[in-house]
Input
Amino acid sequence: MEETQARHILYRKKDTGWFGSDYNFNLYRGCPHGCIYCDSRSQCYGITDFSKVRVKKDALSILHTELRSCRKTGVAATGSMSDPYNPMERQYEFTRSALKLLDTYGFGTAIATKGSLVTRDIDVLSSIQSHSPVIVKITVTTPHDELSRWIEPGAPSSSQRLEALHTLSKAGIFAGVLLMPVLPFLEDREEDIKMLVKLCAEKGAKFIYPYFGVTLRDRQREHFLAKVREYSQDIWKQYLDYEEDYSCLCPNHRTLWAVFEQECRKYGILWKMKDIIQAYQKPYEMQQLSLL
Output
């Protein structure tokens, strides 16, 4: 395992609006999933050879020191720039060790992943959830395994991720789905959105948070369009109408939103950020009030 230098691991966030997390940390650098749409290829992040996974040197030791020094606990999020459950994690268990540290120092956690290996750590997540908020967000962008294998070739299939969601839900972990990005002309059919919401409901998802579009800029755009062109000349030509912009919405995004909201209401699934945050954090706020 190649190492990269890191001075800090835990960062305090200025804005807690993204799933209510107070801190952010990443133990790994790079990701092997090969998702054709990955925003981390953009020049602004300064990462070359993003598909190669590296671990940050002395990451756990640094995290240990930083958690111990924190004056205030909170929810520590991971998975923003690299998947905490990449294939290397099975052998090295850096993410599992980090979760144990969060548990020891009374922190909650918010995990974003495409890795089904997250189910291995249900015991630690359950221990954390006994005293602090826990939320697991599993990215699923299509209900079709064949399409997911092309769009996200190094990640578990959509059905495997949904099974991981089911396992987490049965274990009592607050878990749901990141439905993002929804790729224009590839994943934006109304029937697919209905199918995916239904599957999520069957697997016990507490929430689904969507983005009906994709980001396209500089190196990310070049890579994405090259892959789409290999897949379909017709779809590639439609993408050429999009300017190089951070946000490229599906042409039918308003219709998709209406269909999505209707289906979520039908199955009792949360989709608004404030409702999701309240649902997984409120029980602990009540505990704090009762203690005071």
